[in-house]
User: Which sequence fits this backbone?
């Protein structure tokens, strides 16, 4: 029975990793670039929510509603002012610029908030739980998982049911022809990055409520997100959710064997899947 | 007839290679102009320059007298000049209907062309509206490409090699749509390698060779020998 | 049509002579320079070595890696494990460093070469993390907290006795001198080796692969094999540098040996600021880096922010770096690897 419990906890943890990854997957699907600062931007959003919660004494949910449009603006401006200058055939500029950004954000947060661990207080929600048969499920992990499903569903709808989604896909297919149709690819990219940041902010809320965070944990979140995207199959949104679950389950199972193995076993699961299914479980094109 | 679009002294470069050497053309309201020439004569470059894919000095291209040469492709589309690109360039991730809808992305400029009107022009597309665009035959794909461009309700429609690689009967079907397009207020520039096709449909013809206009005239008035020279170069 | 292809340029021999003089002066430094100067130069030489190898990977090979710390770490643990477990002299232990890096390179290549471009970058980061976490489980060399190089291993370091006798320095300083000479030898061999490699067909093949992969493939270049070779060479180079850095340091821990900031972020900034895709770039970059560090190191995180911003600005507005600005104006190259075609006569 303990193994069932471990796997269930792993699936729920996977919801958090899927939230980290959803924004990355969205942006990759449209621009074919990876933002190496994605994890640091999530941490930055967590600090933004923390400031809103503590300084204005807001509830975390209200803080999220305020932080999300702000982070959209951050993403939009970042794309328009910086990243759009790096779009092109050469993969070096976007990688190196976002890597630089990662270092800048981390150290700016260190300077602004010092290296202490913080947490977004969620009151009684933090410890609330319910039982399903013999298994006890925390309300917070369950909420995280439900949110991951809702976010994936919402992104899927935007992608396949709206004019914006059409423009996303058209620009992803062929930016030159899209511009002939009156679409400005740079604007579409900016909206996509903004949307990715909104998802990152949702991820940040749960990151901050579930555990302690400090300015240096961004790169590890980027790595989890990246692993989820690759396991799921690049550019497949539901695949990314599954990828997050795989990492989550691998981590809890590893931790059940030896707590020191938690992180390592998540990475090893990723490497094994990379070896046997290099294009991921649900490669794009087969959706 | 008033001049709708004109190029004056239009030059274009790809790196060190010069593709156009001072091309002067005009297009009047309601007119159909054909540009003919051999491979590499600069026809596609001319189209891409007008459409904004190749940026130019502002005054080299004017629409209703307003310089537009410096505008980016999306802005050129916004002022009413839309290109049907060579090779169709449909969006593979989109269905037929989604491809058409993308053409109407800038909803600011309304006009006669709607989804229903495009389906009336090319009824076969309505049956296949939900199919991925690339699942269609070449001729049907070309119809999608034309319909997609029409959805922006252009004042000027630029057609780059729309008969390339298609069977004669299919070409006839596609060119049969031209009168309806003109009726609804668009003017046309058509690039063709197929001289007969071009002469059959155009009010005026420009012959382009090695980046220069070598001949201009009305189809009925052009001397065939002169056209041969203008197309292939004068035999030395 | 007759033509000749030339890689050199007029005045090459002056540059070569100047380089020789500089190396000789550096080599003689222990006899008149201060110990702190040698320690600074040791740092500069090892960082420059890492930068040259990262530039070989990313600038010439098009393989952006964020995981070079894996090889630095493997090299560091190579020296320590050899000394602690098998009593191997640390200087000889550098060979163990090279082998450790070689093995990790071959194993990790199986994984990371399944990924392209940006995904390759994060893939290298993941395997480096796996390596860090795995080495932290190795209790014999200190596990998660790390360990020190045994006193007798440091004492017996090859060459230290001789240096003591010749210079009259104390033992600790003599060991610094040995490390310094090794670092100098490593950086000279690295620059010379890469220069030699780029002037051979390899350089041409790499350039062709970056400019036009399809054409290069159709010309019979096996891109996969060449890229793998570049990956492995860069790994071994970083491994030896890592062994040397931590041999001089005397202490190793998983977090310091596998630090992404110290062994990859700094290195990337050095290359980007100096000029990616040139041999001169990393040299300029490491000088700028050292000056910035001397000026700003007290400012802590501000220093990294400045470095990051500088890297971003250079990538956006001068993607060929400081050296690109210099050579773009003057056409000058210290290490000419561009091939110039001279058409001598033309038959029309």
Assistant:
């Amino acid at each position: 029975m303990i193994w069932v419990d471990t796997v269930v906890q792993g699936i729920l943890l996977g919801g958090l990793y899927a939230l980290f990854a959803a924004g990355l997957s969205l942006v990759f699907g449209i621009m074919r670039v990876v933002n190496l600062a994605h994890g640091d931007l999530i941490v930055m959003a967590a600090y933004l929510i923390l400031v809103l919660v503590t300084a204005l004494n807001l509830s975390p949910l209200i803080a999220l509603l305020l932080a999300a449009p702000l982070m959209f603006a951050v993403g939009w401006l970042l794309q328009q002012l910086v990243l759009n200058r790096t779009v092109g055939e050469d993969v070096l500029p976007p990688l190196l610029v976002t890597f630089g950004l990662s270092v800048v954000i981390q150290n700016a947060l260190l300077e602004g908030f010092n290296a202490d661990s913080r947490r977004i207080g969620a009151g009684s929600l933090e410890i609330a739980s319910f039982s399903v048969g013999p298994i006890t499920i925390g309300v917070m992990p369950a909420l995280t998982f439900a949110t991951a499903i809702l976010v994936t569903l919402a992104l899927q709808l935007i992608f396949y049911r709206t004019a914006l989604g059409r423009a996303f896909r058209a620009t992803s297919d062929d930016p030159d022809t899209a511009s002939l149709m009156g679409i400005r690819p740079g604007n579409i990219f900016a909206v996509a990055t903004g949307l990715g940041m909104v998802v990152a902010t949702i991820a940040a809320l749960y990151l901050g409520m579930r555990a302690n965070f400090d300015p240096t944990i961004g790169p590890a979140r980027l790595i989890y997100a990246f692993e989820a995207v690759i396991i799921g199959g690049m550019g497949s949104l539901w695949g990314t959710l599954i990828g997050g679950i795989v990492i989550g389950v691998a981590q809890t199972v590893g931790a059940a064997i030896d707590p020191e193995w938690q992180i390592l076993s998540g990475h090893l699961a990723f490497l094994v899947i990379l070896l046997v299914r290099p294009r991921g479980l649900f490669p794009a094109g087969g959706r | 007839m008033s001049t709708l679009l004109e190029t004056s002294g239009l030059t274009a470069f790809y790196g060190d290679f010069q593709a156009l050497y001072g091309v002067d053309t005009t297009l009047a309201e309601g007119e159909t102009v054909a540009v003919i020439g051999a491979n590499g004569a600069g026809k596609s470059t001319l189209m891409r320059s007008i459409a904004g894919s190749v940026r130019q000095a502002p005054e080299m291209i004017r629409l209703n007298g307003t310089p537009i040469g410096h505008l980016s492709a999306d802005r050129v589309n916004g002022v009413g000049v839309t290109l049907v690109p060579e090779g169709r360039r449909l969006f593979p991730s989109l269905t037929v209907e989604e491809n058409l809808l993308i053409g109407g992305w800038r909803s600011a400029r309304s006009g006669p062309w709607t989804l229903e009107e495009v389906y009336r022009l090319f009824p076969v597309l309505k049956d296949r509206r939900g199919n991925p665009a690339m699942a269609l035959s070449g001729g049907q794909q070309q119809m999608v490409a034309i319909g997609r461009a029409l959805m922006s309700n252009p004042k000027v429609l630029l057609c780059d090699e729309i008969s390339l690689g298609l069977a004669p009967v299919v070409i006839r079907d596609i060119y049969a749509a031209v009168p309806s397009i003109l009726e609804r207020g668009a003017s046309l520039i058509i690039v063709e390698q197929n001289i007969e096709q071009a002469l059959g449909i155009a009010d005026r013809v420009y012959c382009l060779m090695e980046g220069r206009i070598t001949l201009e005239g009305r189809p009925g008035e052009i001397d065939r020998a002169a056209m041969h020279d203008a197309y292939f170069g004068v035999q030395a | 049509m007759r033509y000749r292809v030339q890689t050199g340029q007029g005045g090459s021999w002056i540059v070569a002579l100047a380089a020789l003089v500089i190396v000789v002066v550096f080599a003689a430094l222990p006899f008149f320079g201060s110990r702190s100067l040698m320690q600074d130069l040791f740092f500069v030489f090892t960082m420059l070595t890492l930068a040259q190898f990262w530039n070989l990977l990313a600038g010439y090979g098009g393989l952006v890696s964020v995981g070079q710390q894996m090889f630095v770490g493997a090299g560091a643990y190579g020296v320590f494990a050899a000394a602690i477990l098998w009593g191997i002299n640390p200087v000889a232990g550098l060979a163990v460093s090279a082998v450790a890096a070689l093995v990790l390179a071959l194993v990790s290549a199986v994984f990371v070469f399944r990924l392209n471009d940006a995904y390759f970058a994060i893939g290298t980061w993941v395997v480096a993390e796996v390596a860090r976490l795995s080495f932290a489980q190795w209790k014999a060399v200190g596990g998660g907290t790390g360990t020190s190089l045994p006193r007798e291993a440091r004492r017996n370091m090859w060459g230290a006795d001789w240096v003591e006798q010749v210079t009259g320095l104390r033992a600790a300083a003599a060991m610094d001198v040995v490390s310094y000479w090794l670092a100098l030898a490593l950086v000279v061999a690295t620059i010379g080796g890469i220069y030699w490699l780029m002037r051979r067909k390899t350089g041409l093949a790499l350039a062709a692969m970056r400019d036009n992969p399809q054409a290069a493939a159709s010309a019979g270049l096996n891109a996969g094999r060449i890229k793998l070779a570049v990956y492995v060479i860069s790994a071994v180079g970083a491994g030896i540098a890592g062994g040397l850095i931590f041999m001089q340091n005397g202490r190793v821990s998983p977090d310091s040996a596998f630090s992404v900031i110290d062994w990859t972020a700094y290195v990337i900034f050095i290359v980007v600021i100096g000029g990616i895709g040139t041999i001169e770039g990393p040299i300029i970059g490491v000088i700028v880096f050292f000056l910035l560090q001397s000026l700003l190191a007290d400012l802590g995180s501000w220093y990294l922010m400045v470095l990051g911003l500088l890297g971003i600005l250079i990538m956006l507005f001068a993607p060929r770096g400081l050296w690109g600005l210099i050579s773009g104006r003057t056409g000058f190259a210290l290490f000419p690897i561009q091939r110039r075609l001279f058409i001598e006569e033309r038959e029309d």
Summary: Chain B has a mean pLDDT of 91. The CA atoms of residues 181 and 187 of chain B lie 8 Å apart.
